[in-house]
Amino acid sequence: MKRLPRFLPWLVPLTAAVALPWLARGNDYVLSVLTLAYIYAVAGLGLNLVTGYTGQLNLAHAGFMAIGAYTVGILTVDHGVGFWWAFALSGFVAAIFGVPIGWLSLRLRGHYFAIFTLCVGVIINLVIEKWDALTHGVVGILGIPVPPGAGDLQFDSPREQYFLALFFLVCCTWVMLRIVRSLVGRSFMAVRNSEPLAEALGIPLMRTKLLAFVLSVFYAGLAGGLYAGTIRFLSPDLANIAHTFDIVTAMLIGGIGTVAGPIVGALVLPWITQYLQFMENYRM
Questions:
Q1: What share of the chain is helix, strand, coil (3-state, %, to 5)?
Q2: How far apart, in whole angstroms, are the C-alpha atoms of residue 16 and residue 9?
Q3: Which end of the chain is more exposed for a tag (fewer CB within 10 A), N or C?
Q4: Helices and strands counted in the chain (H then E)
Q5: How far is residue 111 from each of residues 58, 146, 167, measured CA to CA in Å?
Q6: Contact 43, 249 (CB under 8 A)
Q7: Which DSSP category does 77 fall into?
Q8: CA–CA separation, 43 vs 237, rounded Å?
Q9: Residue 257 in this model has a pLDDT that exceeds 90
Q10: Given this model, what pLDDT does residue 222 score?
Q11: Which residues make Cβ contacts (< 8 Å) with residue 241, sequence separation at least 6?
């Protein structure tokens, strides 16, 4: 029996996502919620790589997302850099910060690694809040420009922003599928399953875990850059540890260690909290 193409299971949800703006009949609120869900799904794909596939729970993920967002905000608002140039740097800046932090934290394992990264996330949040000269402190960054388009293609309406976020989610998902199905991805899973066995097979543990960590925070930085271009306002709250736990929760709901899991969780979680509003303080 001939095997079905690997992309076929993704075709139906992608078709539904493309058709949804017309099915929503101009409901900007629905499109805005889904746009943010797609952005957090990109961040979730990154966290799932280091947690679900490599077995390291990084609790500073929202901090790296904030680094990417503030890269876009600072460069565009304070230095007049074009949005797309700033966005192209957002993932790389987060990855640059991720190298030394990963090199230090990955010397620890299990709960110790999680606690260390939890502290890193709190420090990133405090630095953003207190470094007024660079980050504007608690006032935040206002007036981030809309991602510029070309000709008739502009990104200044909820529908266009929705498709922009969906486009990057599709691209990031495709790249993630290529990573996890490659020899590198199998090395990540070998480290997750048994570090001593992976080392016995000749897999360099530190280098493999550091690569997964840097790729993970690169995704977080890209998600932050998209967030900045969509919301157009940044505050230190973006780096709050609560956002990391939201991403972790979405990843667990959708299925940890699967590419589709963070996407499903990021789509389901906002609607659960929306439909439970009648429970007031208990819905969270």
A1: 75, 0, 20
A2: 12
A3: N
A4: 13, 2
A5: 10, 41, 36
A6: no
A7: I
A8: 16
A9: no
A10: 95
A11: 59, 62, 118, 121, 122, 125
Which residue type is seen at 254? G
CA distances from 138 to 37, 187, 233 (A): 25, 42, 12
- Identity of the amino acid at 110: G
Distance (Å, rounded) from C-alpha 223 to C-alpha 43?
A: 5
Encoding tokens for residue 249?
């929760």
Euclidean distance between CA atoms 84 and 105, whole angstroms: 32
SS3 at position 280: helix
**Residue ranges of E strands in the chain:** 141-142, 233-234
What average pLDDT does range 10-28 have in this prediction? Answer: 79
pTM metric for this prediction: 0.91
Q: Is the pLDDT of residue 25 over 80?
A: no
Residue 115: count of CB within 10 angstroms of its CB: 14
Q: What is the mean pLDDT of residues 252-275?
A: 88
Long-range CB contact pairs, 171-174, < 8 A, 24+: 172/42, 172/45, 172/219, 172/222, 173/10, 173/45, 173/259, 173/263
> Is residue 283 a contact partner of residue 276, using CB atoms and an 8 Å limit?
yes
199 CB burial (10 A radius; 0-12, 13-18, 19+) = middle
